[in-house]
Design a protein that fits this description.
The protein is an all-alpha fold. It has 4 helices and no strands.
């Protein structure tokens, strides 16, 4: 069972790291002048680009320490949820938030919820199998 848990952990780590890398690349391109095809809300663009670095770091942390990675993923999910709520509020009040930005932020929030849930499940599974979870 330990082998399968390591594989699952590796997949979650890979998703987190790749998601971070793609976010950094996409955000940097737009910051450098590439047109994404919709109105860009600059504070959200900066937030997402910075969070791309955090996503990448979260992947590295989750690889080294499952429990700490789980906590980082939970923090990212909560931060993204707050930002999603804020831009949704601005969108409903007529601010220049593109619907594409809402969709992308929803995707980010869901991805990090799934990553947190996967790491939480894995951490609890290790405990139930008597495998010492990371401290």
């Amino acid at each position: 069972m330990e082998k399968y848990m390591k594989i699952i952990q590796s997949v979650l780590v890979l998703v987190a790291a790749l998601f971070g890398l793609v976010t950094i690349i996409a955000g940097t391109r737009v910051l450098l002048g590439s047109d994404p095809g919709y109105i860009v809300f600059q504070p959200l663009l900066i937030y997402n680009t910075v969070m791309g670095v955090v996503y990448l770091a979260a992947g590295i942390i989750a690889r080294r320490n499952l429990k700490q990675g789980m906590y980082v993923a939970a923090g990212i999910f909560i931060l993204n949820l707050f930002v999603l709520a804020a831009i949704y509020f601005l969108y409903t009040k007529g601010s220049t938030i593109a619907i594409d930005s809402l969709r992308a932020m929803t995707l980010r929030t869901v991805v990090w919820f799934v990553l947190f849930a996967g790491l939480w499940w894995l951490n609890n599974r290790k405990k139930s199998y008597g495998v010492k979870p990371d401290a």
